[in-house]
Design a protein that fits this description.
Blueprint: E1 8-9, H1 10-16, H2 22-30, E2 34-36, E3 39-40, E4 47-48, E5 55-57, E6 60-62, E7 70-75, H3 98-101, E8 106-107, E9 116-122, H4 125-132, E10 140-146, H5 152-160, E11 163-165, E12 171-173, E13 178-184, E14 189-195, H6 202-209, E15 214-222, E16 225-226, E17 235-237, H7 240-249, H8 257-260
Parallel strand pairs: 9-15
Antiparallel strand pairs: 1-4, 2-3, 2-5, 5-6, 7-9, 7-17, 8-9, 10-14, 10-15, 11-12, 13-14, 15-16
Helix pairs in contact: 1-2
Length: 263
Protein backbone atom coordinates (compact mmCIF):
# COMPACT_ATOMS: atom_id res chain seq x y z
CA UNK A 1 0.00 0.00 0.00
CA UNK A 2 1.12 3.56 -0.59
CA UNK A 3 2.03 5.91 2.24
CA UNK A 4 2.87 8.97 0.17
CA UNK A 5 1.36 12.28 1.21
CA UNK A 6 -0.62 12.57 -2.01
CA UNK A 7 -2.75 9.51 -1.34
CA UNK A 8 -6.06 9.27 0.48
CA UNK A 9 -6.47 8.38 4.13
CA UNK A 10 -8.10 5.01 4.62
CA UNK A 11 -10.85 6.29 6.95
CA UNK A 12 -11.69 9.06 4.50
CA UNK A 13 -11.81 6.59 1.60
CA UNK A 14 -14.28 4.37 3.49
CA UNK A 15 -16.45 7.37 4.37
CA UNK A 16 -16.47 8.68 0.81
CA UNK A 17 -17.28 5.18 -0.48
CA UNK A 18 -20.39 5.30 1.69
CA UNK A 19 -19.37 2.46 3.99
CA UNK A 20 -19.91 4.49 7.16
CA UNK A 21 -19.43 7.91 8.66
CA UNK A 22 -15.81 8.99 9.21
CA UNK A 23 -16.03 8.20 12.92
CA UNK A 24 -17.59 4.77 12.35
CA UNK A 25 -15.02 4.04 9.63
CA UNK A 26 -12.27 4.68 12.16
CA UNK A 27 -13.98 2.25 14.55
CA UNK A 28 -14.08 -0.40 11.83
CA UNK A 29 -10.36 0.06 11.23
CA UNK A 30 -9.44 0.02 14.93
CA UNK A 31 -11.40 -3.21 15.38
CA UNK A 32 -9.37 -5.00 12.67
CA UNK A 33 -12.22 -5.42 10.20
CA UNK A 34 -10.48 -3.59 7.33
CA UNK A 35 -7.82 -5.08 5.05
CA UNK A 36 -5.67 -3.39 2.42
CA UNK A 37 -4.17 -5.74 -0.17
CA UNK A 38 -4.98 -8.66 2.11
CA UNK A 39 -3.31 -7.19 5.20
CA UNK A 40 -5.28 -6.04 8.22
CA UNK A 41 -4.80 -2.32 8.91
CA UNK A 42 -5.67 -0.76 12.28
CA UNK A 43 -4.50 2.82 11.66
CA UNK A 44 -7.20 5.14 10.21
CA UNK A 45 -4.56 7.60 8.95
CA UNK A 46 -2.96 4.95 6.70
CA UNK A 47 -2.82 6.33 3.16
CA UNK A 48 -3.91 4.28 0.17
CA UNK A 49 -4.15 4.65 -3.57
CA UNK A 50 -7.81 3.89 -4.41
CA UNK A 51 -6.85 3.18 -8.03
CA UNK A 52 -4.26 0.53 -7.13
CA UNK A 53 -4.93 -0.79 -3.63
CA UNK A 54 -7.62 -3.34 -2.80
CA UNK A 55 -9.65 -2.47 0.28
CA UNK A 56 -12.04 -4.89 1.96
CA UNK A 57 -14.31 -4.66 5.01
CA UNK A 58 -15.22 -8.02 6.56
CA UNK A 59 -13.97 -9.62 3.36
CA UNK A 60 -16.15 -7.50 1.04
CA UNK A 61 -14.29 -5.35 -1.48
CA UNK A 62 -14.99 -1.63 -1.30
CA UNK A 63 -14.83 0.53 -4.39
CA UNK A 64 -15.61 4.19 -4.83
CA UNK A 65 -18.61 4.73 -7.06
CA UNK A 66 -17.77 5.59 -10.67
CA UNK A 67 -21.15 7.18 -11.27
CA UNK A 68 -21.08 10.56 -9.56
CA UNK A 69 -24.35 11.95 -8.31
CA UNK A 70 -25.17 15.32 -6.77
CA UNK A 71 -28.47 15.78 -4.94
CA UNK A 72 -30.24 18.60 -3.13
CA UNK A 73 -32.31 17.46 -0.15
CA UNK A 74 -34.74 19.39 2.06
CA UNK A 75 -33.81 17.91 5.43
CA UNK A 76 -36.67 17.76 7.95
CA UNK A 77 -36.14 17.92 11.69
CA UNK A 78 -35.46 14.61 13.41
CA UNK A 79 -32.98 13.21 10.87
CA UNK A 80 -29.23 12.96 11.44
CA UNK A 81 -26.86 14.01 8.65
CA UNK A 82 -24.81 10.81 8.57
CA UNK A 83 -24.70 7.54 6.64
CA UNK A 84 -25.54 5.51 9.75
CA UNK A 85 -26.32 6.29 13.37
CA UNK A 86 -25.18 4.16 16.34
CA UNK A 87 -28.25 5.33 18.29
CA UNK A 88 -30.60 4.04 15.62
CA UNK A 89 -32.05 7.43 14.73
CA UNK A 90 -33.30 7.97 11.16
CA UNK A 91 -30.67 9.36 8.79
CA UNK A 92 -31.04 11.59 5.76
CA UNK A 93 -30.31 8.55 3.57
CA UNK A 94 -33.58 7.02 4.78
CA UNK A 95 -35.31 9.73 2.74
CA UNK A 96 -33.84 8.36 -0.52
CA UNK A 97 -35.04 5.36 -2.55
CA UNK A 98 -33.09 2.12 -2.23
CA UNK A 99 -31.56 2.39 -5.70
CA UNK A 100 -29.88 5.67 -4.73
CA UNK A 101 -28.72 4.44 -1.33
CA UNK A 102 -26.88 1.63 -3.11
CA UNK A 103 -24.77 4.26 -4.91
CA UNK A 104 -23.01 5.16 -1.65
CA UNK A 105 -24.21 8.72 -1.31
CA UNK A 106 -23.30 10.68 1.81
CA UNK A 107 -23.97 14.20 3.15
CA UNK A 108 -21.68 17.10 2.28
CA UNK A 109 -21.30 18.57 5.75
CA UNK A 110 -24.03 18.37 8.36
CA UNK A 111 -27.15 19.97 9.70
CA UNK A 112 -28.06 19.47 13.35
CA UNK A 113 -30.81 17.02 14.25
CA UNK A 114 -33.32 19.83 14.81
CA UNK A 115 -32.10 22.07 11.95
CA UNK A 116 -33.98 21.88 8.66
CA UNK A 117 -33.25 22.94 5.12
CA UNK A 118 -30.83 22.54 2.25
CA UNK A 119 -28.37 19.65 2.41
CA UNK A 120 -26.18 18.35 -0.41
CA UNK A 121 -25.57 14.63 -0.97
CA UNK A 122 -22.96 13.13 -3.28
CA UNK A 123 -20.65 10.19 -3.88
CA UNK A 124 -17.95 12.40 -5.41
CA UNK A 125 -15.20 12.66 -2.82
CA UNK A 126 -13.27 15.44 -4.53
CA UNK A 127 -16.41 17.56 -4.84
CA UNK A 128 -17.30 16.99 -1.18
CA UNK A 129 -13.79 17.89 0.02
CA UNK A 130 -13.80 21.10 -1.99
CA UNK A 131 -17.22 22.12 -0.70
CA UNK A 132 -16.22 21.48 2.93
CA UNK A 133 -12.72 22.96 2.80
CA UNK A 134 -12.48 25.90 5.26
CA UNK A 135 -10.97 28.20 2.62
CA UNK A 136 -13.18 27.29 -0.31
CA UNK A 137 -16.55 26.43 1.22
CA UNK A 138 -19.28 28.53 -0.45
CA UNK A 139 -21.39 30.92 1.57
CA UNK A 140 -24.31 29.35 3.44
CA UNK A 141 -27.46 31.31 4.24
CA UNK A 142 -29.80 30.57 7.16
CA UNK A 143 -33.06 31.85 8.61
CA UNK A 144 -33.25 31.70 12.39
CA UNK A 145 -36.09 32.48 14.75
CA UNK A 146 -34.48 33.62 18.00
CA UNK A 147 -35.89 34.40 21.40
CA UNK A 148 -36.20 38.10 22.13
CA UNK A 149 -35.35 41.13 20.01
CA UNK A 150 -31.61 41.62 19.34
CA UNK A 151 -30.39 45.20 19.48
CA UNK A 152 -28.29 46.85 16.79
CA UNK A 153 -25.21 46.52 18.98
CA UNK A 154 -25.87 42.81 19.47
CA UNK A 155 -26.15 42.30 15.71
CA UNK A 156 -22.88 44.16 15.26
CA UNK A 157 -21.18 41.87 17.78
CA UNK A 158 -22.31 38.88 15.73
CA UNK A 159 -21.00 40.48 12.53
CA UNK A 160 -17.57 40.92 14.07
CA UNK A 161 -17.45 37.38 15.47
CA UNK A 162 -18.11 36.23 19.03
CA UNK A 163 -16.42 33.84 21.44
CA UNK A 164 -18.09 30.45 21.84
CA UNK A 165 -17.08 27.45 23.90
CA UNK A 166 -15.93 24.28 22.15
CA UNK A 167 -16.89 20.79 23.36
CA UNK A 168 -13.54 20.50 25.14
CA UNK A 169 -14.16 23.75 27.00
CA UNK A 170 -11.72 25.87 25.01
CA UNK A 171 -12.88 29.31 23.81
CA UNK A 172 -13.08 29.96 20.07
CA UNK A 173 -13.69 33.26 18.28
CA UNK A 174 -15.87 32.84 15.21
CA UNK A 175 -15.13 34.49 11.90
CA UNK A 176 -17.18 37.53 10.81
CA UNK A 177 -20.64 36.72 9.49
CA UNK A 178 -23.45 38.54 7.74
CA UNK A 179 -26.62 39.08 9.78
CA UNK A 180 -29.74 41.20 9.36
CA UNK A 181 -33.16 41.26 11.01
CA UNK A 182 -36.09 40.08 8.90
CA UNK A 183 -39.22 40.21 11.04
CA UNK A 184 -40.39 40.58 14.61
CA UNK A 185 -43.09 38.22 15.87
CA UNK A 186 -44.72 37.42 19.17
CA UNK A 187 -42.33 34.47 19.52
CA UNK A 188 -39.17 36.46 18.81
CA UNK A 189 -37.15 37.74 15.84
CA UNK A 190 -36.40 36.18 12.47
CA UNK A 191 -32.82 36.78 11.37
CA UNK A 192 -30.92 36.04 8.16
CA UNK A 193 -27.36 34.82 8.71
CA UNK A 194 -24.62 34.28 6.09
CA UNK A 195 -21.39 32.49 6.85
CA UNK A 196 -18.68 30.16 5.55
CA UNK A 197 -17.68 28.50 8.79
CA UNK A 198 -19.45 25.32 9.77
CA UNK A 199 -18.35 24.42 13.28
CA UNK A 200 -20.57 22.14 15.33
CA UNK A 201 -23.84 23.90 16.22
CA UNK A 202 -22.09 27.19 15.47
CA UNK A 203 -25.13 29.38 14.81
CA UNK A 204 -26.94 28.06 17.87
CA UNK A 205 -23.86 28.64 20.02
CA UNK A 206 -23.28 32.14 18.65
CA UNK A 207 -26.83 33.29 19.24
CA UNK A 208 -26.97 31.71 22.68
CA UNK A 209 -23.74 33.52 23.59
CA UNK A 210 -25.39 36.92 22.96
CA UNK A 211 -28.55 36.02 24.89
CA UNK A 212 -30.87 35.12 22.00
CA UNK A 213 -31.15 31.32 21.78
CA UNK A 214 -32.48 29.74 18.61
CA UNK A 215 -36.09 28.56 18.45
CA UNK A 216 -36.05 27.46 14.79
CA UNK A 217 -33.19 27.22 12.29
CA UNK A 218 -33.30 26.52 8.57
CA UNK A 219 -30.58 26.59 5.90
CA UNK A 220 -32.07 28.19 2.81
CA UNK A 221 -29.07 28.48 0.46
CA UNK A 222 -25.59 27.17 -0.29
CA UNK A 223 -23.73 29.47 -2.65
CA UNK A 224 -26.01 30.03 -5.66
CA UNK A 225 -28.33 27.14 -4.72
CA UNK A 226 -31.56 27.98 -2.93
CA UNK A 227 -34.05 25.68 -1.26
CA UNK A 228 -36.91 27.19 -3.25
CA UNK A 229 -40.20 25.31 -3.01
CA UNK A 230 -38.64 21.88 -2.44
CA UNK A 231 -40.88 20.21 0.14
CA UNK A 232 -39.49 18.86 3.44
CA UNK A 233 -38.19 15.33 2.95
CA UNK A 234 -37.98 15.76 -0.83
CA UNK A 235 -34.88 15.72 -3.02
CA UNK A 236 -33.83 16.40 -6.59
CA UNK A 237 -30.62 16.02 -8.63
CA UNK A 238 -28.55 19.10 -9.31
CA UNK A 239 -28.23 20.23 -12.90
CA UNK A 240 -24.83 20.52 -14.56
CA UNK A 241 -25.20 24.28 -14.51
CA UNK A 242 -25.91 24.26 -10.78
CA UNK A 243 -22.87 22.07 -10.07
CA UNK A 244 -20.64 24.37 -12.12
CA UNK A 245 -22.05 27.49 -10.45
CA UNK A 246 -21.58 25.98 -7.01
CA UNK A 247 -17.94 25.15 -7.69
CA UNK A 248 -17.30 28.56 -9.25
CA UNK A 249 -18.61 30.36 -6.16
CA UNK A 250 -16.43 28.39 -3.76
CA UNK A 251 -13.93 31.09 -2.81
CA UNK A 252 -11.72 31.89 0.17
CA UNK A 253 -13.87 33.03 3.08
CA UNK A 254 -11.56 35.91 3.95
CA UNK A 255 -12.33 37.73 0.71
CA UNK A 256 -15.86 38.55 1.90
CA UNK A 257 -15.18 39.43 5.50
CA UNK A 258 -15.10 43.19 4.91
CA UNK A 259 -18.37 43.12 2.99
CA UNK A 260 -20.11 41.09 5.72
CA UNK A 261 -19.17 43.61 8.40
CA UNK A 262 -21.50 46.05 6.62
CA UNK A 263 -24.27 43.61 7.50
Amino acid sequence: MSTSAGKERLARFLAHAGVASRRHAETLIFSGRVQVNGQTVTTPATRIDPARDTVTVDGQRIQASRRHLYLMLHKPAGYVSTVSDPQGRPTVLDLLPEELRRLRLYPVGRLDLDTTGLLLLTNDGEFALHMMHPRFSPEKRYRALVRGYPSSSTLERLRQGVVIEEDDGRPYRTAPIGVRPLQRTAAGTWLELRLHEGRKRQIRRMLASVGHPVIELQRVAIGPLTLGDLAPGSWRPLTRAEIAALQAQAAPARSRSAEWRKG
